[in-house]
Amino acid sequence: xxxxxxxxxxxxxILSRLKRIxxxxxxxxxxxxxxxxxxxxxxxxxxxxxxxxxxxxxxxSTYLASCLEADIEEEKVKKALAEFTPLLxxxx
Length: 92
Description:
It contains three helices and no strands. By secondary structure, the protein is mostly helical.
């Protein structure tokens, strides 16, 4: 299967979000090293969790828009749903 996150297909947006998340993780590492409060750390972890969820939703959306669309146009609906359903379950 081709990479559906190729340039022009939201790759830039997803990479930007992932780099932001990477920076947030480094920030949490510094917070722990600096003995910051647990509530501050939990707040940042919550932000990372939400950001990762948004990235996952973008990837799933891209998958729906490209792979499944092509399969559905070719009337391979059962095959398309069989491939998508496990991905959705893993993400949920």
